[in-house]
Amino acid sequence: GENVEQHPSTLSVQEGDSAVIKCTYSDSASNYFPWYKQELGKRPQLIIDIRSNVGEKKDQRIAVTLNKTAKHFSLHITETQPEDSAVYFCAARAPLGGSNYKLTFGKGTLLTVNP
Amino acid sequence: GAGVSQSPRYKVAKRGQDVALRCDPISGHVSLFWYQQALGQGPEFLTYFQNEAQLDKSGLPSDRFFAERPEGSVSTLKIQRTQQEDSAVYLCASSLRQITEAFFGQGTRLTVV
User: Fold this and answer.
1) Alpha-carbon distance values, B70 to B13, B51, B60, B66 (Å)
2) FRET partner for A46 with CA separation of 20 to 30 A, picked from A60, A104, B44, B55?
3) String of b and e for B53-92 (b: at least 16 CB within 10 Å)?
4) A71 touches chain B (CB under 8 A)
C-alpha cells in the first residue's frame, strides 16, 4: 500500500520567514496530493491540493510543488504569521481499483511561528 | 447540515466496554471515511463507504472494530471490548464523490481507562 513520509516533524520559524515541509510517497499510481492544517483540538482542514498532472500550484502565501519522478511534494508558506502555527499534514491518494481510492497521511509537522 | 458532525465529542470508556461513535456526513456526500488519529500522529485510514457499501475495511485494526452505514448517510463505528490502545481521536470525513475534497468532522476523542 501507499506510504507517506513527512519531514520535518517540528519546524520553528520567525514571523515573516518562509516555511517548507516535504513529503515523499511510495505508490507511483497516486494522483492527488492534499495538504491539511489542523489547529489544536480542531478538525483537519484542506488548505491546498495538487493533482498529478500539475507541477506547481499557488494560492496567495502558500504553494505546493510536485515532482512525480522523484515521488515527492512540498508545501511552501511565505511571509509566515503567528496564525499559521498549527500541525500540517500531507496526504496522497492512491487508487484501490475501480473508482475507489484511499487517502494516506503523513505523520504531520508542528509549525510554530514566533512573533 | 453545514459540515460533518460527530458525536459524542468525548467518550471515556472502561476497558472491556463497548462504544459506538456516530458520524453525520454532509448531506448528499457519497463517500465516507473513518480515520484513527493517535496523539501526535497523522490520521490512519480505518474504513471507507460508498453510499451504504463498505468498499474497504483493510485499516480496521482488529475484529473488535465494526463500521456500518445502513442507509448511505449516517455511519456508526463500533468498538467492542475496548482496550487502552484504542484510545485516540476517531475522525470521520465525507466527500461528494471519489475525486472531490474530503471534509473532516471534529472527531470523537476516546479514552479507555
Assistant:
1) 25, 9, 18, 13
2) B55
3) ebbbeebbeeeebebebeeebebebebeebeeebbbbbbb
4) no
Give the pLDDT confidence score for residue B11 in this predicted structure. Answer: 98
Q: Which of A43, A99, A107 sits opposite B107 (nearest CB)?
A: A43
User: Chain A within 8 Å of B100 (Cβ-Cβ)?
Assistant: no
Distance (Å, whole) CA A78 – CA A14: 11
Write the pLDDT tens digit of every residue in B40-78.
Answer: 888 999 999 999 999 889 899 999 999 999 999 999 999
> Who among A44, A102, A108 is closest to B104 (CB)?
A44
**Is some CB atom of chain B closer than 8 A to the CB atom of A89?**
yes
